[in-house]
Specification:
mainly beta; 115 residues
Amino acid sequence: QVHLMESGGGSVEAGGSLRLSCAADTSTYWNYDKSWYRQAPGKEREFVSGIDAVGTVRYRDSVTGRFTISQDNARLTLDLQMNNLRPEDTAMYYCKISSRTRDYWGPGTQVTVSA
């Protein structure tokens, strides 16, 4: 089992930046697929960005060129640098690690972008 904790959320104006971080409490599943998701009020949770087990990085189209995902294997952290934020990026952001048998989620961190 792994416990995840996100941090770094906050309120910014459009065009601003935030850096989210997700910390894992164990390296047990660290080499599995890791990703960021978000969920806005009244909407389904959606994929934002991920790093798979072999290091392949993916982004949803709307954040490509603005968001950058990275990981620190020594600190067991998964970061999401978010630049040029837009009001439509407003959501609760969650990190996830997918083992072979289940997904592990953090409690989330709120990002609010004002116009």
